[in-house]
Amino acid sequence: MEKEILINQESEIIELGYRIGKLLKKNMVIALSGDLGAGKTTMTKGIGQALGVKTTINSPTFTILKIHEGKIPLYHMDVYRLSPESGDDDLEEFFEKDGVCVIEWAENIAYLLPETYLKIEIKNLGETKRLVRMSSSDPKYIQIIESVIS
Q: Which of 22, 38, 141, 144 could form a Cys-Cys staple with 50, CB 3.0–4.6 A?
C-alpha cells in the first residue's frame, strides 16, 4: 500500500510525525528518505513527542545513533555516511530492542533493514511545501498509513 499527503508548512510535518508516533509499538522500524532539508529530522521530532521523549531531537549525523528515552525508547539513526563497506552492521540489533527505530537516509542501509518496515519518503516541493509518501506491505504498517492519511 502507498499513500501520499501534501504538507504546506513545517508544523504539519511535526503533526504527521506525532500522529504516526501515537500508533507505533515496540520493534517497529520507520525508514525515512528525502533530500537534505526535506524534513526527516522534523518528522522524527513529532514521532518523539508522541513517544514522550523529553530530550532534544536533532540530526545524529556525526554519531549515527542517538537513543532517546520515552514511553518506549526511540532509536534515532542517521546513516547518511554508511554503506555496505563501512562495517557498521551492528545497527540492526536496535530493530528488535523493544523500542522504535527511525532511520534517516535508510536507503543507505537497505541491505540491513528488516523484512517489513514503514517507508516514508519526503520530497521537497520548494519553500515549506513537501510531498510525503508512505508505503508498506505489512498489515501493521498499512493500518498506520490508513489511520494518518485518509
A: 22
Domain boundaries, the chain: 2-148
Whether the full predicted model's pTM is greater than 0.70, yes or no, is yes
Q: Is the Cβ–Cβ distance between 24 and 50 less than 8 Å?
A: yes
Q: pLDDT tens-digit profile of 72-87? A: 999 999 998 877 777 6
The whole-angstrom separation of Cα 105 and Cα 80 is: 5
Which residue carries 504527521 as its cell? Answer: 16
| Class (C level, CATH) for 2-148 | alpha beta
In angstroms, how far apart are the furthest CA atoms of the chain? Answer: 41
Of 47, 46, 45, which Cα lies nearest the Cα of 25?
47
Residue 16 C-alpha cell reads as 504527521
Residue 89 corresponds to which cell in the numbers above? 552492521
* In the block, residue with C-alpha cell 529530522: 41
Q: In degrees rounded to 5, what are phi and psi of residue 70?
A: -155, -155
